[in-house]
Amino acid sequence: MKEVPAEICNDCGEDFVDESVARDIMAMAEKISLSGAQIDVRRYVPDP
To answer: Cβ distance 4 to 21 under 8 Å?
Structure first.
């Protein structure tokens, strides 16, 4: 998903989404899955 509103932790710099956004993303993914689309989730790994 693109343009997901995220926050950045002031202590560690990690990005995160709040509970309501995470719930919306999961609901959207479920709808996509039920429509027959395949979902590919990958971890971002920067080039060395």
So the answer is: yes
